[in-house]
Amino acid sequence: MNYGTNHFEMRHTCVHYKYKIRKSHVDKAIDLVQKATEEDKNKNFAEALRLYEHGVEYFLHSIKYEAQNERAKESIRAKCVSYLDRAEKLKAFLKKGTSKKPVKAGESSSKKNNGNSDSDSDSDDPEMKKLQSRLGGSALIESPNIKWDDVIGLEAAKEALKEAVILPIKFPHLFTGKRTPWKGILLYGPPGTGKSYLAKAVATEANNSKFFSVSSSDLVSKWLGESEKLVKNLFQLARENKPSIIFIDEIDSLCSSRSDSESESARRIKTEFLVQMQGVGNDTEGILVLGATNIPWVLDAAIRRRFEKRIYIPLPEEPSRTQMFKLHLGSTPHNLREDDFKILGKKPKGKINFSQLNLIYLTTFILFARYSGADISIVVRDALMQPVRKVQTATHFRRITGVSRTDPNIIIDDLLTPCSPGSPGAIEMSWVDVPSDKLLEPVVSASDMLRSLATSKPTVNDEDLKKLVTFTNDFGQEG
């Protein structure tokens, strides 16, 4: 195979089939393998190996998060296998440290030289390399850039994760003898409370650790016996890249309670998980398994036991809700005061004084006990659209003075903003008649927020909350 032209073939193939892949990671991968082939030709084998492996990581990342067409994924996987094969030959050559040249690109590694075969190449398992290349896309190669401070509240969960991930790396002498870091942490709670967001913070803060983010689609295969091999190879990759973190989102889809009616393949996946997480002879030192689920009560009891820390990620309390409203509103122009944010963050305690609340407030308070962080973000996004709706439905506009959009030092006195027909200076017109550079939309107000709260319903119901509280009382701890 001519490795010097592979990157051109890849680009041509993707254009020919009109694959809808965002260019960023694919282009990075193509640039890296192009440089790798150049270094390979110049006999800079160590640098070529590094570039090949880095390029394959970007290709696999694009398969998992960007590629939509199945044919595109298969095309990229085929290229990855070729580059990985070349990388393995270079790695074997560098490991032996001989003066012999590595096997040429495209040649079979089993080809004999002077009657002696390359034992390192012969011992390679092509099936294992194929499975590991499929799992390679689960490794994050770019930090999500989410810090601990970006996670509002959830102090107990953050402290447990620091104990398991950050402190053992920074202060290894603290974890000697019987004091060992946590090997398994389960984050559970209602949807939208920040479980996956916490995992992203771990991936950012644990910059010395390899972070594998996997889902059921990464580990389930239609081929008999391949799913449990994928689980085994995932943990093998983690052991080869210690310290490492395996994050399994929606782990309930893989590790629900075993029963007589389940399929044999599902049972084998759970058995392999049990063995790899805490089986006899398996090294779990330096590996943290981080799981997340909305329905922890369906997990198999043996899987639940292997998660030593089970932390409840609850719905946000009043201070956290107040802070979330501020965070999601950001720098968007608004006239909300600090008291308005406090009102938005409140929920009723005890008896409600109906005489002091209007209908919108009453609706808000009754439902607000079940709002998650994701629900609040949707409420704010809807409130941010309220000024746009005012512009769209307005029948009259009036001229006002305001700051130029291009230069804040320039004041413009002929901007147009929507108004009621009875307002002084009202001009009958619609948004279609307003020049694009003359529109000044209304700022977000407290009434916009309350209107969105009244129309946006929470995604969590009382029945699920009761189940989560029961599970916490039996097996978990508050986050």
UniProtKB/TrEMBL annotation:
Q: Where is the AAA+ ATPase domain?
A: 181-317
Cross-referenced SMART domains: AAA, MIT
Per UniProt, the keywords (alphabetical) are: ATP-binding, Cell cycle, Cell division, Endosome, Hydrolase, Membrane, Nucleotide-binding, Protein transport, Transport
Transmembrane stretches, by residue range?
none
InterPro entries registered for this protein in UniProt: AAA+_ATPase, ATPase_AAA_core, ATPase_AAA_CS, MIT_dom, MIT_dom_sf, MT-severing_AAA_ATPase, P-loop_NTPase, Spast_Vps4_C
The biological processes this protein is annotated with in GO are: cell division; endosomal transport; protein transport; vacuole organization
Task: Report the CDD domains cross-referenced here.
Answer: MIT_VPS4, RecA-like_VPS4
One MF annotation (Gene Ontology) recorded for this entry: ATP binding
Which cell locations does it reside in?
Late endosome membrane
EC number(s) given by UniProt: 3.6.4.6
Location of the region described as Disordered in the Swiss-Prot/TrEMBL record: 99-130
Q: Record's GO cellular component, any one?
A: late endosome membrane
**Which membrane topology describes this protein?**
Peripheral membrane protein
**MIT domain ranges (all copies):** 22-101
User: Which family, according to the similarity comment?
Assistant: Belongs to the AAA ATPase family.
Q: From the Swiss-Prot or TrEMBL record, give the protein name.
A: vesicle-fusing ATPase
